[in-house]
Amino acid sequence: DQQVKQNSPSLSVQEGRISILNCDYTNSMFDYFLWYKKYPAEGPTFLISISSIKDKNEDGRFTVFLNKSAKHLSLHIVPSQPGDSAVYFCAARKYNNNDMRFGAGTRLTVKP
Amino acid sequence: ETGVTQSPTHLIKTRGQQVTLRCSSQSGHNTVSWYQQALGQGPQFIFQYYREEENGRGNFPPRFSGLQFPNYSSELNVNALELDDSALYLCASSYSQGMAGELFFGEGSRLTVL
User: Fold this and answer.
1) Would an 8 Å CB–CB cutoff place B108 in contact with chain A?
2) A-contacting residues in B 37-66 (Cβ below 8 Å)
3) Looking at the complex, does the CB of residue A40 fall below 8 Å from at least one CB of chain B?
4) According to the model, what pLDDT value does residue B108 have?
5) Where are the beta strands (DSSP E) in chain A?
6) Is the pLDDT of residue A22 over 70?
7) Are B105 and A104 in contact (CB < 8 Å)?
8) For position B101, what pLDDT does the model report?
9) Residue B33's closest CA among B81, B25, B85?
């Protein structure tokens, strides 16, 4: 049962433009959401997170938006850089629960 | 500060065999989680170990088992291997069990079952 979905397997953007990666979830009990980035031959690395009590969290070029009513979150990267090219995973969990659910990932390619 | 390390990085087994994968957690972390990532999918939670005891399990059969040692390193054991067990196995460590914080992943062990 796939409770976290990333419906776009890939995304290509031009350097300097905005990248928007989307994620939907079905379990309304999720209250903490994370984005991970994965380069080839490396493990996923934490990028940014957001608690359900917020609707936006910003860290440098990266901003995550949460729309609880729509059960949707998105990651914005502005401006996009070629080094951002990687697979991005959306993840969600219930507070104090160790079972983190991941989406299937979106492969972002930023073209110079 | 050393990160999460996993061994072996690649291995090939045949159906019915058993495999043991190893993980050393990041310095200062007391919790280890194991994930299975099949091709084209996101990581799926197998189980978590905290203070040497299993602390939560995903939808995986009992032939997937684990251990955590006093130094917080961990092993994942899979018995009676099946073709569908072919995947990247990721170990992740964290500061505590039920936290809201992020996981720190190793590079993974890629298992191929023939």
Assistant:
1) yes
2) 40-45, 48, 55-56, 58
3) no
4) 96
5) 4-5, 10-14, 19-25, 32-38, 45-51, 56-59, 62-67, 72-77, 86-93, 101-102, 106-111
6) yes
7) no
8) 60
9) B25
